[in-house]
Amino acid sequence: MSAPEPIIEVDGVTTVLGGHVIHRDLDLTVYRGEVVALIGGSGSGKTTLLRLLLGLEVPQAGSVKIFGHPLGRCAARDLERVRYRWGVLFQNGALFSALNVFDNIALPLRELKSVPPDLVKPLVMLKLAQVGLKPDDAFKRPAELSGGMVKRVSLARALILDPQLLFLDEPTAGLDPDSAKQFVKLLRRLREELELTVVMVTHDVDTLFAVVDRVAVLADQHIIACGPLAEVARMPHSFVRNFFLGHLERCAEEDVKRFRLSLDDTSDEGGVPAVLRGEAVS
Ligand SMILES: Nc1ncnc2c1ncn2[C@@H]1O[C@H](COP(=O)(O)OP(=O)(O)OP(=O)(O)O)[C@@H](O)[C@H]1O
Ligand SMILES: [Mg+2]
Question: Which GO MF terms does the UniProt record name (predicted)?
C-alpha cells in the first residue's frame, strides 16, 4: 500500500494576535481522505488555526503547507489555485445578508468565472438539492432561514467548486439535536460521495462518534494529541477528561462502529433526493 498523502502540514507554528501568543510550536498533519476533528476549549485558538490553514492569518514562526504548497511563500497565482481546491463553512455561516440563497451559493462560481454563465443555475440547484434544500429555498434571504438551513446553504456554497478539502467550523453548533443529526448524516454521505478530506472544529461528541477518523486536541497552545477517538478520549488531560465525561463507555472501536451503523439504518435521509443518493427513482 502506498504511503498516505499529507494534504495539510503544519510545522512548528507560533501565532501571536493582539500581543498574545495563541499557538506555540504547533504541529498537525492531515492526510488525504481523512476527517479530522479539532477540539479544544473556547478561546484555545481553533478558529485561528483554521484561519492559518486558509492563509487568512500569517504565523510568526513555523510553516503551513496545503497540497504541498507553503502558504506564506507561494506566488499569488499558486495561492489562488490552492484556494479554489478548498471549501469553508465559517463558524457563523458567513452568508451575505443582502444576497438570496441562490446568489450566496453562486458567488464562488461567479468570482472564479470557471464555468459559462448558463451553467451557474444548474450547478447551484444541484448543490442545493445535494444539501437537502428545496428549489424554492433558492429565493429566500438569509434572514428567512432557520439555523439548520443556514448551515446547509453555507455547506452548499463551500461545495460549489467541488473542493477536495473542506473546513468546517462548528457545523452543528446551535442546531437542535435532530437537525444536528441530519447535518452529520449529510456530511457522512457527502464525504463518501465526494471523497473529501475534512477538518472540522466541533464541540459535539455525537458528531465525533458519527464521522471522525482522528481527533486533534488543541490545548496549552499546541496540538497535544491527534489520534483515534478511543485513544484520545482516554488521555489524562483535564480538558479531554471533561470533554468526554459520561461518553467514555461509547469510545471502544466496536461501539463507534455500532453507533455509525445505527445512523445508516434510520430511514430519514434529511431531504436529499433519492436520485442524488444513487437510488433508482420510478
Ligand atoms: N483578530 C484578533 N486579534 C486579537 N486577538 C484575537 C483575534 N482573533 C482571535 N483572537 C484571540 O485569540 C484567541 C483564540 O480565538 P479563537 O477564535 O481562535 O478561539 P476558538 O478556539 O475558536 O474559540 P471558540 O470555541 O469560542 O470559537 C482568543 O483569546 C481570541 O480573543
Ligand atoms: Mg472558534
Answer: ATP binding
For residue 280, is it within any domain? no
Across the range 227-247, mean pLDDT stands at 91
Q: Which domain holds residue 6?
A: 1-85+164-266
The pick from 22, 88, 202 for probing ligand 1's pocket by mutation, whose C-beta has the most ligand atoms within 8 angstroms, reads 22
What gap in Å lies between CA 216 and CA 207, rounded to an integer?
14
Q: Are residues 157 and 174 in the same domain?
A: no
Residue 197 pLDDT more than 90?
A: yes
Distances (CA, A) of 213 to 98, 179, 228, 232: 38, 22, 6, 11
46: Cβ below 6 Å to ligand 1?
Answer: yes
- The Cα–Cα gap between 111 and 236 comes to 47
Q: Is residue 64 in contact with ligand 1, taking CB distance under 6 Å?
A: no
Predicted pLDDT of residue 274: 39
132 and 232 fall within a common domain: no
Q: Give the closest residue to 209 by CA, choosing from 258, 175, 143.
A: 258
CA nearest ligand 1 atom 24, residue: 42
What's the CATH number where 254 sits? 3.40.50.300
Cα 277 from Cα 274, distance rounded (Å): 5
Q: Smallest Cα–Cα separation from 156: which of 279, 271, 15?
A: 271
The residue among 91, 17, 16, 80 whose CA lies nearest residue 50 is: 91
Confidence check: pLDDT of 37 > 90: yes
Whether residue 171 is predicted with pLDDT greater than 90 in this model: the reply is: no
Query: What is the pTM assigned to this prediction?
Result: 0.87
